[in-house]
Every structure is written in structure tokens, then in C-alpha cells.
Amino acid sequence: MFWTVTLSLLEGFLGTIKLFILTLIFSLPLGLFISFGSMSKYAVIKYPIRFIIWIIRGTPLMLQLLVIYYGPGIFFGVNVWGSNPSGRFVAALFAFVINYACYFSEIYRGGIQSIPVGQYEAGQVLGMTKRQIFNKIILLQVIKRIVPPISNEVITLVKDTSLARVIAVYEIIWNGQAFIKSSGIIWPLFYTGAFYLIFSGLLTFLFGYIEKKLSYFR
Amino acid sequence: MPILEVRDLKKNFENTQVLKGISFDLEEGEAISIIGSSGSGKTTLLRCLNFLETADEGTITVRGKKLFDGAKPVTNQDELRKMRLHFGLVFQQFNLFPQYTALENVTLAPLLAAEGGDKAGIIENGKRLLDQMGLSDRMDNYPHQLSGGQQQRVAIARALALKPDILCFDEPTSALDPELTGEVLKVIRNLAEKKTTMIIVTHEMAFARDVADKAIFMDGGVILEQGSAKELINNPKEERTRQFLSGLAK
Predict the structure, then answer these.
(1) Domain count across chain A
(2) Confidence class of residue B249 from pLDDT cuts 50, 70 and 90?
(3) ipTM of the predicted structure?
(4) Reading across the β-sheet that carries B4-13, which strands appear in turn?
């Protein structure tokens, strides 16, 4: 029984990891563009972006999942996601990417704005272009500063993936819960915690390694 | 022909006029020191010369070529960048790039500008400059591993690496512990002896007098007095200059 459960949970965990990795791949860069938008000198860009960030950060992710999945059908009469599992997965991924990109954008914004203006000016008087100043001087300093808060968000994301099951996306909790109905046992559900712990432990090591790699400068 | 001619430079921030018409000349190989109390506009003047601020009126002419005219300011980023290369600036707070070693700080901008040109030559030049600053054993250190005086000397080498026509110093020793100012003043003194064209904003009066050929006393956004550095600091003509200098002596 233990092996059956473990295999089933592992299969569910693959869904979890798939959602986790794809969310990061899309939301980390998207967050950077959103942060540029939220710092734009043009009010027509800045304020709409900040409004969206307020909505996304101000409402529960679970609600966003439901609105994004059911919303198009209810409000516009078109089910853009389809009703098969892969459609639901894409809907969940969409919600996660938007949500995490907004959180990441605020971390980026804090990181970028914490770099002393003297760093930009030093680059300017050395005749560097704006792009060179950002890529060669600012970026690495920003990365160093945002690694701890990003690692926090990433570890939160591992556990947030479990919310995807409100729109019936298969992940590890879903599979764990299935044993309650099928076999009348609850321990597989509790057992899922071990998977989360091991995975977030690995991530903690990874981020610790990155932090150490960047500790050669201050 | 002077290497630098500044004419009637004016700059406003919001409703306060920080520069109220600054005019002076600088000859090649000369050093000029700018003194005055804080808020007199010294730093703003340097920032206008380096185009970190855009003056509202007036002209800046380098080697006979009008670089800046307040009547038609340049907004093109590429042109602005080229204009800045005529000037070097050493900041009060050093502003070294923390993720690069001393040598990388010095060679970063020239390497980017050369786009794969004479890489070895640029690195050789960077080493020579650091050696000249007395930092030959510190080239591979990161800024946080250096003392304030060493950091400022790296910053001077970094500014020199681009071979500016005029090197500007914005209170280069104000952020340093007193026992570290000497080593920075010494390298600036050496540069003066090598006839480097310099503009030095400083609160070190003895230094301003001994190193610079000319001096400018600024007060409330105007040049109140200018002349030979020795004359101006030893025998100021204006009452306000005397006040300022005797206030420092107390």
C-alpha cells in the first residue's frame, strides 16, 4: 500500500512541479516588465499597472483562479480554456503567472529603487549608455538584493500550487485526497507534506548557494 | 585659447536659482579650485559641467568648440554621452562599482567603449594608472576590501582611464577619515604637477591654495571673487571671502 500511495503521490507531485516551474519561467521575466511599467514616467502606463498590481495582490489567489477559469464563460459566453485537464492546467498556469509576476514586480521595483543614484551617475560620467549602465552595473546589484525576498516567494509558490485543485487541476494534494474516497485512509494526504518539505528544503539549499555565490561583493 | 570657457551659466531648481550666471576660463594644464560654503552652488556647477544636470542658460565651450548652449540644449542621449567624455568626475562618495575589482572598475568603461578593440592595451593602461595611484598591490581587491582613501584613488584612476580633457573633483576628501585625506590629496597634487587640467571643489583651503593655479570663491550662486589661488586665499579682496576664510580658521 505504501508504494502504491508513494507512486500515486509522486505522479501528482509531477503536476505540482510542472505548474511550479512553468509559473517561474513566465512570471520572473514578466515581473520585470511589470516593474518597469510601475516605475514608468508616463502616468498612462504607471497608474493602470499599479491598479492591476493592487487588484492582484489585494484578492486571494484562489478567487483569481476561479474568476480566470469560469469568468470568460460566465461573462462572455465563451469557454476559452476548454473542459479537458490540459485546458484547466493552462487556466491555472495563467492565474499563477499573473499573480506571481505582480509580486515579483514589487520585489524588483524595491531592488531597483534601492540602488544609490550615484551608481547611475558614475556610469553616466564614464560615457556609458543607459543599457550598459543597467546591464553591467545595476542588474547584478539588484539580483544580490532581491535573492532573499525572491526565495521567500518561490517557496510560497511550492505550496500555493495546491490551490490549483479548486479548478480540478491534478496535483499532489488531489491525489492524496483521492485515497480518502477510494480506500478510506487519510494518511496519504498527510504524507504529501513530506514531498513539500523535501522540495522546499532543496530550494532553500539552492538559494543559499546563490546567496553565497553573490557574497563576494557588498 | 582656454581649454574651457564657461559663460553666464544659470540653473534653477523649482523656484530657487542655484547658479546665477557663472563665467570663468580654464587654461590647459591648469588647476582651479572652487571654494565656498555649502549651498553656494559649487556642486551644481560641477554637475552642469558633467551634464548630470542641464543648465538653463549659458554656454560651455571646450577647446573652442561650443559643447553646450542653454538656448538649444541637447536631448539626444548619444550626443550627451559624447559631451560627457570631455569631462571626468570624481565623486565625494567614490561611487565605485561594488561587484568589480579595482582594475575592473578602471577598465569597464574603456572596454565597453572600445567594443573589442585594443583590450590588452586598455588593461595595461588600467594597471599603469592604478600603479600611479600607489595601488599596484590592490588591483584585484573589491571596493569593500579597500579603505576609503584607496577607494577614492581607484575612482580617480577610473576617471583618468577615459582621458578626459578636464578632470573634476567634487569634495574628494569630504567622506574620508582625516587620516586618509592625505593620501588622496597627494595623488591630486601629483596630477597637478603633471599638468593635468583640473577643477577641484574642496574645503581643504591649504590644499586649494597650494595645488591650484587659480581659485574661485562662490557665494549664493555667483562667483564673488576669482584670481590666483595664493592671492585669493591669502589676501582676499572681498569682505564676504574674508568672512568665509576666517570662519574656517576658527
Answers:
(1) 1
(2) low
(3) 0.92
(4) B16-26, B4-13, B57-62, B65-69
